[in-house]
C-alpha cells in the first residue's frame, strides 16, 4: 500500500516518523477518532493508517486495558450485569454511538464505586442514595474520574449530568424487566426518586441564508469542492443526522425520483426527498467520484475511501472559523431544516416523519421557536408604544406629545 500524500506533511509538523506518532497516540489511549483529530485528517484515513502500520491489535488491547482499569481487577455481580445490559442493547439494534454512550457512563460509575470501596453488588452499589451521591460528584468535582480524559477536566454542564441520569434510567428499567431489581432506584413518572436534571432552554441561533450561500459559493469544481457542496445541500434539504449522511450508499438513492433511503437511530429506515438543485449537485459530484471511488458509500475522501463523520466535521469546521458568530456543524443544518419546514407548512406530523423522530417532543420544540417568531411579528404590528405615539386625543394620526 502506498503512503497517503498527507504523511509527509504530518511528519514535518510533528518532526517525527509517522509510525512513532501513531504508536504514541495509541499508547496515550486515543481512539481512531482521537487519532484523526490529533493529526487533522479524516477518520477513514486514520483507519487506513492504523491498518497500514498494523495497530489494530494494539488498539483492541489498549481498549480492553482501559475497560479493566475502570472496572478494577475484581469481578463483581454489577459488572457482569453491565456486560449483559450492553449485550442486550446491541442485540436490540441500538446504534454504536448509543452503545458507547451507555458503556462509557457506566464504566465511569464503576470507577467511582471502586474509588470509594463500595462493593460491586447491586444491593450495595445501585441504590437511590448511591446514585444521588454520584450525580452530585459529577456536578461539583472540577477534575473527575482521575482526569483520565480531556472531557473529565472540563467544567460540567447540566446536559452532562442529564446524560448520566438517562443512562441510569435505561439501565434500571432493564434491571427491573430482567427481574434483577424489584423497583427502579430512579423511579418513574411522578414517583421519581431522583429528578431528571433541568436543562437550560437556550435560543439556538440559526444559520442565515446568506452564510449558507457563501459556503456554497466557496466550493470549487474539484472532487472535494463538488463533494462539499453535495454535503451542505443534502444536510440542508433533508435535515438528516450526520451518521445517516455518511451511511448513504449509491443503492440507497433514486435520483430520478429525488428520493434517498437513510437508516436512522436503531437502524430505522425512512425515505427523504431532495430538491432539483440538490439532485443536480449530486449528479455533478458523481461524475468525478467515479474516477477514484473504492467504496459503495456516496461520500468519499480524496483517496476514494468512505468519508467518516470526522471528515464532514473537519470540512464544516473550516466554515466555522470563517463565520464564528453562527453555528456551523451538522446538527445546525437539521435545526435550520426543521424551522423551514414548519415555516412553510406548520405540519408537526410531517416534520416528525421527515426528521426521523420517535415522538413529537423535538418537533414541538421547533414549533415553540416559530411561535416566538410569530409573537415578535405581532408585537411589531401592534406595539402599544408606537400606537400611543401615533394617536392624539381627537383620533387623528398626529403623534402624541410625551414629555421627557
Write the topology of this structure.
Layout: H1 7-14, H2 18-27, H3 32-39, H4 43-52, H5 56-71, H6 77-91, H7 96-115, H8 122-125, H9 128-140, H10 158-177, H11 209-217, H12 223-238, H13 242-246, E1 253-254, E2 259-263, E3 269-273, H14 276-289, H15 309-322, H16 330-344, H17 348-355, H18 361-381, H19 384-390
Antiparallel strand pairs: 1-2, 2-3
CATH homologous superfamily title of the largest domain:
Intergrase catalytic core
CATH topology of the largest domain: hpI Integrase, Chain A
Arithmetic mean of pLDDT: 83
SSE pattern, N- to C-terminal = HHHHHHHHHHHHHEEEHHHHHH
Spatial separation of the terminal alpha carbons? 80 Å
- Percent of residues in helices: 55-70%
Largest sheet: 3 strands, antiparallel
Query: What count of domains describes the coordinates?
Result: 3
Output the radius of gyration.
26 Å
How would you write the strand order of the largest sheet? 1-2-3
Which class best fits the helix and strand makeup? mainly alpha
| CATH hierarchy: architecture of the largest domain | Orthogonal Bundle
The CATH C-level class name of the largest domain:
Mainly Alpha
User: Would you report the number of β strands?
Assistant: 3
Shape: globular
- The low-confidence parts are 70-74
| SS strand fraction | under 5%
Number of helices: 19
Amino acid at each position: 500500500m502506498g503512503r497517503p500524500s498527507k504523511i509527509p506533511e504530518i511528519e514535518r509538523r510533528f518532526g517525527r516518523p509517522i509510525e512513532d506518532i501513531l504508536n504514541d497516540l495509541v499508547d496515550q489511549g486515543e481512539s481512531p477518532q482521537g487519532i484523526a483529530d490529533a493529526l487533522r485528517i479524516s477518520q477513514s484515513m486514520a483507519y487506513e493508517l492504523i491498518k497500514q502500520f498494523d495497530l489494530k491489535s494494539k488498539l483492541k488491547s489498549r481498549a480492553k486495558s482501559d475497560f479493566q482499569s475502570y472496572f478494577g481487577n475484581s469481578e463483581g455481580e454489577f459488572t457482569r450485569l453491565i456486560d449483559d445490559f450492553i449485550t442486550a442493547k446491541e442485540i436490540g439494534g441500538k446504534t454504536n454511538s448509543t452503545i458507547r454512550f451507555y458503556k462509557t457512563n457506566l464504566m465511569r460509575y464503576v470507577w467511582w464505586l471502586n474509588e470509594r470501596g463500595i462493593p460491586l453488588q447491586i444491593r450495595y452499589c445501585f441504590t437511590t442514595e448511591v446514585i444521588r451521591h454520584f450525580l452530585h460528584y459529577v456536578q461539583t468535582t472540577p477534575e473527575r474520574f482521575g482526569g483520565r480524559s480531556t472531557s473529565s477536566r472540563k467544567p460540567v454542564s447540566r446536559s452532562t449530568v442529564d446524560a448520566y441520569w438517562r443512562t441510569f434510567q435505561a439501565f434500571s428499567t432493564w434491571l427491573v424487566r430482567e427481574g434483577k431489581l424489584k423497583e427502579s432506584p430512579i423511579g418513574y413518572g411522578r414517583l421519581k426518586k431522583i429528578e431528571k436534571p433541568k436543562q437550560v432552554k437556550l435560543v439556538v441561533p440559526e444559520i442565515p441564508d446568506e452564510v449558507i450561500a457563501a459556503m456554497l459559493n466557496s466550493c470549487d469544481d474539484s472532487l472535494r469542492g463538488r463533494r462539499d457542496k453535495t454535503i451542505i445541500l443534502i444536510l440542508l434539504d433533508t435535515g438528516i443526522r450526520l451518521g445517516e449522511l455518511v451511511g448513504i450508499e449509491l443503492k440507497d438513492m433514486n435520483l430520478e425520483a429525488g428520493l434517498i433511503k437513510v437508516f436512522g437511530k436503531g437502524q430505522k429506515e425512512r425515505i427523504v426527498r431532495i430538491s432539483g438543485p440538490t439532485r443536480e449537485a449530486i449528479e455533478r459530484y458523481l461524475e468525478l467520484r467515479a474516477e477514484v471511488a473504492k467504496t459503495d458509500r456516496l461520500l468519499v475522501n480524496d483517496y476514494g475511501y468512505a468519508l467518516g463523520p470526522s471528515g464532514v466535521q473537519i470540512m464544516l469546521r473550516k466554515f466555522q472559523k470563517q463565520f464564528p458568530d453562527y453555528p456551523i456543524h451538522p446538527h445546525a443544518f437539521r435545526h435550520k431544516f426543521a424551522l423551514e419546514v414548519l415555516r412553510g407548512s406548520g405540519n408537526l406530523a410531517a416534520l416528525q416523519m421527515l426528521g426521523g423522530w420517535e415522538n413529537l417532543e423535538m418537533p414541538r420544540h421547533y414549533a415553540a421557536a416559530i411561535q416566538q417568531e410569530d409573537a415578535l411579528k405581532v408585537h411589531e404590528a401592534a406595539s402599544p408604544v408606537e400606537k400611543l405615539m401615533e394617536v392624539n386625543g381627537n383620533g387623528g394620526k398626529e403623534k402624541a406629545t410625551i414629555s421627557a
